[in-house]
Amino acid sequence: MSAHTRPGWMEKPKPVTQAAKILALAAVVLLVCVPFLVILSTSLASQREVIANGGWVLWPQNPTLKAYEDILDGGIVTQALGVSAGVTVIGTLLSLACTVTLAYALSRPGVFGGKPVLLLVLFTFLFPPGMIPSFLLVKELGLLDSYTSLVLPVLVNVFNLVVLRGFFQGIPEELYEAARLDGAGDWRVLWSVVLPLSKAALAVVGLFYAVAYWNSWFYASLYLESDNWPLQQVLRTYVVAGSGITDTTTGEATVNAPQTVQMAVLVIATVPILLVYPFLQKYFTKGVLTGAIKS
Q: How far apart are CA 191 and CA 209, in angstroms?
């Protein structure tokens, strides 16, 4: 290969290759956007129009918010939305705090008991507890029908811990030594040196935790009564079971979950994450790759 020849991946793509990439990207965008557009349109259509179109509407003729009014006026979805938002915010903050402190401790050489703790954490990643042991533990701790049961059993995720630990290990040792020479303790080093340099990794791990808490429904079905369900469990009951939810305060069932109501609940459950993700997307690749390479 001559000195002026560039590798193949650095060459300017041919028109045919460029056109193929554009078509592939357009196909992926359509596969993602069209289903969401159908869901949104169906939620805004009238039930009569949905039935006339075989259950789905691509573009409603007379948009209406009746489906959203039905589910929000009933109180069940509104309460579930508040539960999901509270669990997501509080759970993400607590998980980040615990994961950051544990990852920082395990990333520093010479920490007493660091290796046994790391092996113990990795063991739980390879051999997770089963459903029955988890339920019995939550029951013995008195956490049944408590929102704590949605946070405490999943407070620290091993994958997120490994990512942050690898990121902290990648910070130049000279920065730690300089902070020590200035008289900084461990907490000061963590707060003033490590965290400001770890915004990308923290954003990614925070996004992982937030999405996990927001989308969680399985533990709610095991540990909570129906009047305390988060939004995803309500969504599952509406869409998968295709039935309304009984309000324990009145003993009456809500609407019978027609197609428009199902799609409206699905939109409400999806939009918050879609609004948050663009603000963290720029950190996503950098944070994951840096933590993974250094681990």
A: 21
Alpha-carbon distance of 202 to 282, in angstroms, equals: 12
SS3 for 246?
Answer: strand
d(Cα 115, Cα 117) in Å, to the nearest integer? 5
Distance (Å, whole) CA 230 – CA 86 = 10
Rounded to whole angstroms, the Cα distance separating 99 from 155 reads 8
Question: Is-contact 49 259, C-beta < 8 A?
Answer: no
Instruction: Return the DSSP state at 227.
Output: G
Q: Domain containing 176: what range?
A: 77-239
Question: Residue 57 in contact with residue 215, Cβ under 8 Å?
Answer: no
Same structural domain, 33 and 111: no
Number of domains in the chain: 2
Following CA atoms 36, 40, 45, 47 in sequence, which dihedral angle do they give, to the nearest 10 degrees? 70
Tokens of 203: 């954003």
Question: Cα Rg for the chain, rounded, in angstroms?
Answer: 24
CA angle 97, 99, 104 (to 5 degrees): 100
Q: Kindly report the pTM of this predicted structure.
A: 0.78
Structure-token pair, residue 272: 């918050």
DSSP string, 34-78: HHHHHHHHHHHS-HHHHHHTTT--SS-SS---HHHHHHHHTSHHH
Task: List pLDDT tens digits, range 26-78.
Answer: 999 889 888 888 888 888 887 777 777 777 777 888 888 887 887 777 677 78
